[in-house]
Amino acid sequence: MPKRKRNPNGAGSITRRKDGRYMGRAYVTTASGERVRKYVYGRTWEEAHEELVKLLSNERQGIPVPDRSWKVGEYLDYWLEHVVRVSKRPATYDLYETIVRLYLKPGLGKYALGRLGVATVQAFLNAQTAAGHSARKVQVMRTVLSSALTRAMREELVSRNVARLVEVPEAVPREPGEWSTSAVRRFLAEARSDMLYPAFVLIFYLGLRRGEALGLGWDDVDWDAGEIRVRWQLQRVNGRLQRRPVKSRAGRRVLPLLGVVRDALKEQADRQAEWCDAAGDAWDAGALVLSTRKGGWVEPRNFNRSFTRIRTKLGLREFRPHDARHTCASLLAELGVDPRTAMEILGHSRSAVTLEVYQRASAASRREAVRRVAEALGD
């Protein structure tokens, strides 16, 4: 009776277990370069063989097996602590940690990382939409998960990023508010006596972000050259105020010290000198251009409160402080300033952001265009 041929080296083998299931085994390479015996299972010989073929196919393609079996939740914790915390800005870490803690771990944490499938992630995101979360929030969930899985691919723990293969609702972007020049003038006139008046001038005249205005230091103001250097921003991160560099190279910019801006800052310097005398030893030597009466940093939420209070008092329509940048950009467009210059003034890192504002016609522009059509048609 002829002897049964042995499988060639590296082909693996399949045997039947006492419980009736079939087990395939083969030596494969791990992510750390070690050779280990890996096991796969199936209810029938054919199922075990199919799994063994997949295992050996990955081995031939140079795709290693993980050194350990990760759960999605375990890997997300590792990724946050050892990747995101050391490579991202604190505010970004806070956002990612919140999304992981509140949504990803409760919904996907129990699944094996290497077996996470498209259908599982799609069902999870569909459930988040059905629960009433906005399309934008669901998109952020997918983005955070995708970022983690991309890292897992680099560490050769998964062979594909399933988060990139799912569909999520399209978020409808919020139309930014925009005020007319007369509305801006009314607002600034009413804010004239407010301690944050210089910040309001900076966001409307120079298009600074809230954090950039609040993070401006006196050493960033060059009176002789007539320039302001935008280098810092003030943010609340991890429960405390932090003054950090602006987040992009484009955000670091030098802007002209316009007459109205110069006047507002001169008055602020005089006001701070009075506050310093009154506070005495309690005065904070690290005072920025915008400060409290004792030289402390201004809480960003207080900026928003002052802005909203003045807007409401005047009866002006809904308008976020950040929309002041859009108003500034729209004015630049209507005055014929070229997009490249506007991009540098506003500190946009991508020209597409500036062009989007430039391509959005103002209400006045639309009325003028329709008026010309009416004239052409003889109305």
What characteristics describe this protein?
single chain; hpI Integrase, Chain A; 379 residues; mainly alpha; DNA polymerase, domain 1; 3-stranded antiparallel sheet
Structure write-up:
By secondary structure, the chain is mainly α. The protein has helices at residues 45-60, 72-87, 90-108, 118-130, 135-154, 181-190, 197-205, 210-214, 259-279, 300-314, 323-334, 339-346, 351-359, 363-376, and strands at residues 13-16, 22-29, 35-42, 221-222, 227-230, 232-237, 240-245, 253-256. It is elongated. It has three domains: 13-61, no CATH class; 72-164, DNA polymerase, domain 1 (Orthogonal Bundle), CATH 1.10.150; 181-322, hpI Integrase, Chain A. The strands form three sheets. The protein has a three-stranded antiparallel sheet, covered by helices on one side. Helix 3 crosses helix 5 and helix 12 (339-346) packs across helix 13 (351-359). It is built from 14 helices and eight strands.
